[in-house]
Amino acid sequence: MESRLRKLTLDNWIQIITSFAVVVGLLLVAYEFRQNTNFAKAEAARSIISDWSDLSISEFESDIFDLYIRSVEAPEGLSSSEVLKMSAWLAATIGEFNLQSQMYTVGLAEDPTSDLVGDFQYYLGSSFARAWYAENRHWLTAHLVEVIDHEMERNPVESISTYVESIRLRIDAEKAKTTAE
């Protein structure tokens, strides 16, 4: 009788341990599934933004720098199609930073903060770009919004003039080179 109780007790313990192992296994499967889902979402977002960015950049290559300068110097003079082009260009470029920020948040990429801070004046230094950001910040990650807001406080709009002048000189040099050929 005592051996039978020991056998029942041993059977009960084996059953408990086995049940526990099954639960732990299911938790591990759920964790892996979640990780794979996060990776798949990040990859899908990266692909969409990359495709959009490639399309946008190829669409804008010919006149984006001239349009960029005009958006800095006299945004009110832009036509509605030029405003749309600049908005799409900003969406594509800031979208790349947003994607990197999303991937960083889930541990799939490096923090894009240093790249954005380094190029901040180029992307968001003008009043046009800042107005665009104010209208579109709702779709950006909280991390990216925090970085951009901090940089906007540190860098007034007026500080972009030197940068614009360097772009203008490059454009003029490229035009002169093309004309000479």
Describe this structure in words.
By secondary structure, the protein is an all-alpha fold. Helix content is 82%, strand content 0%. The protein is built from eight helices and no strands. α2 packs antiparallel against α8. The longest helix has 59 residues. The chain is elongated, with a radius of gyration of 27 Å. The termini are far apart. The mean pLDDT is 77.
Give the helix level as a range of percent.
Answer: over 70%
Query: How many H/I helices?
Result: 8
Mean pLDDT: 77
Give the terminus-to-terminus CA distance.
105 Å
Helix and strand run: HHHHHHHH
Specify the biggest β-sheet. Answer: none
Q: What is the strand content? A: under 5%
Shape: elongated
- The number of E-state strands comes to 0
Helix/strand-derived category reads mainly alpha
How big is the Rg? 27 Å
Low-confidence stretches: none
